[in-house]
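I am still getting used to backbone structure tokens and would like to learn alongside you. Label the sequence line and the structure token line clearly, so we can match residues to local backbone shapes. Go ahead whenever you are ready, and we will take it from there:
>
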Amino acid sequence: MLAAPRKVKMSSLKSILKTVQEKINPPKERNSITVDDVSMDFPLVFDGNGKMYFFKLDRYVYVKGTRYTKLDKKSRPFLLTCRFRRGFMSDGASAPEFAKMFVPDIKKGDDIYNAAPFIHDGLYMYQGNINGLNMTREECDDILRGIWRIAGLSRAVAGAADVGVHVFAGSPTHWGNDSNNCKHLFEAKFEYR
């Protein structure tokens, strides 16, 4: 009689462990992007009023990583080259007020951190369609989260920010939104290496 309850507990424990393991290392059920490196030729030069930031000079940002594609179940290294032309506008990370102490709109002097929301906004404006490659929203969000991890955000904060993106920017109005009329000031080129 004692063996039956123990099996139930053991199966429950296995189920919980499997759920935790899938959260830590999710199964590859979708296309996904892992960011390995972020670099730029020159510091980002932008100005803003605390709600909107605009580039004062043209700048390039280079993102290296790997892209897993569900269709063929392969991972390939890539280089994403992003060009911000003078005048490109973004609201930065646009976190809700209660989260700004962890995820501020921008971080003065931290170009890697700042590149993440700028690139993310540019990719969203194009709905992930970059020179013939159609990235999903999730892949664009992977790039945001991956760059922030490189910038030093903890996995927990970057993950919470990712949830915030889904809650606050997850509506159809954000995907493809160019309300600032500056889509033409962002260019991106995605190349497999």
